[in-house]
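Section 4.2 – Deliverable D4.2 (structural model, holo form)

The reporting period included a commitment to supply a predicted holo structure for the target in complex with PBG. Inputs used:
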Amino acid sequence: MTELNSFPIRRLRRFREKEFIRKILQENTLNVNDLIYPIFVSEDISEKQVIQSMPGIYRHSLKSILYEIEKCYKLKIPAVAIFPVINQSKKDNEGSEAFNEKGLVPKVIEKIKNSFPEIGVISDVALDPYTSHGQDGFVNMRGKIDNDKTIQLLCRQALVHAHAGADILAPSDMMDGRIIEIRKHLDANNFYELPIMSYSSKFSSAFYGPFRDAVKSTNNLSGKNKDTYQINIANCKEAFLESYIDIQEGADFLMVKPGMPYLDVLFNLTQKVFLPVFTYQVSGEYAMIKNAVNNGILTESAILESLISFKRAGARGILSYFAIEIAEKISS
Ligand code: PBG
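Output (structure tokens):
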């Protein structure tokens, strides 16, 4: 490459000397359109409630969630992802509250769509906030997670969310074959226009810890993990297999989750596939950065830096608890 002739002819610092040149040469930017804001909602509270492990993030009441959505609307954040906090008394082995048509999630979806029809509502299709054991699947007599039975339950849950008006369904459970079965079930019920965002490469990560506190499933899990369905943290090829299989099964969007610890997976995947790939900067990533900023260990610019890394790696959209905070910054 002739452009790589060397010093003293070649001085890349000429790229960086003046701010206007730095601006022109910037290869990636974070736009408000890139952001999806995850929101926790509980029907047991009347005021928003602090989540200890996630400073600045709350469990919302059915009322306070609308103020939060209004913020997103004003900041032009295109979509939110809803995560329910289910009362312990409603949790059971199969997570049956997940397909209650009058349950919390359908109620919230309807509320948001009535007040802010333009905001995209992404609903999580998974059983873990609803199960007494905190797993994402139905646990059989031998204590094992029954893949195919779980899919049937997920299909019912998906249809409830579809009827309530969800704009995108996001299965986050990692059962084999759930994308094709949910797709078929939706199509059979005339929801062929409703897209599926598959959590296609979801790792069995410790970075979900604060989320499990937020939805109060930590105690239900009681020290158990999700290693029999979420991907081994050490595996990259297996993550691609999961993604390719989900493409074949009809996923409209893919996802790599968590984000920062798996940038290699994200980058490699976005180089290989044409479908849009999203990434989820999960609760543990948020908590680390937020606590470091709050304690003066990192400056605030670490937040934008963390999000730009996903753009460099080719993400089409980013789920992040920083969405509101960063949108306020980049749109002012
Ligand atoms: C549940 C689900 C999890 C997250 C999103 N959906 C947790 C888990 O799999 O245990 C994690 C999100 C986060 O940590 O912010 N299926």
